[in-house]
TrEMBL record:
Protein name per the record: DUF3168 domain-containing protein
InterPro entries on file: Gp17-like
Pfam families the UniProt entry points to: Tail_completion_gp17 (PF11367)
Length: 115
């Protein structure tokens, strides 16, 4: 699974402001878009080995939603979870947060997908 696999599942969130790894930045290193936005990252991709090669793999995914309100961030995060349900995510973790540098609330979703 690559970023191109997850993007179509998430692209409708936050009015299409969905990006792998980092939001678009201006020359001064600040986000060049207005909230809300979604960042998704493939944290790891671990393969299981068997005698004849690799059998299955497990991808760890993190989705971060940034918004002006925690309620909006949580709502978009919940929509993100619904969007990836066809992948049968396991070990789902929801984490609230706040980014003081940007004065934005963050709602994080972490999960694993086995294929």
């Amino acid at each position: 699974m690559t970023e191109a696999y997850f993007y179509p599942l998430l692209s409708h969130l936050a009015d299409g402001q969905v990006y792998p790894y980092v939001a678009p930045l201006s020359d001064d290193g600040q986000p060049s878009i207005s909230p809300p936005w979604v960042i998704f990252s493939l944290v790891s991709d671990v393969s299981s080995d068997v005698l004849c090669g690799q059998a299955e793999y497990r991808v760890s995914v993190q989705i971060d939603v940034y918004s002006l309100t925690i309620e909006e961030a949580r709502s978009i995060r919940d929509h993100a979870l619904e969007a990836v349900k066809p992948l049968a995510p396991t070990e789902v973790t929801k984490i609230p947060g706040y980014e003081p540098d940007f004065r934005l609330y963050r709602a994080t979703l972490e999960f694993q997908v086995t294929a």
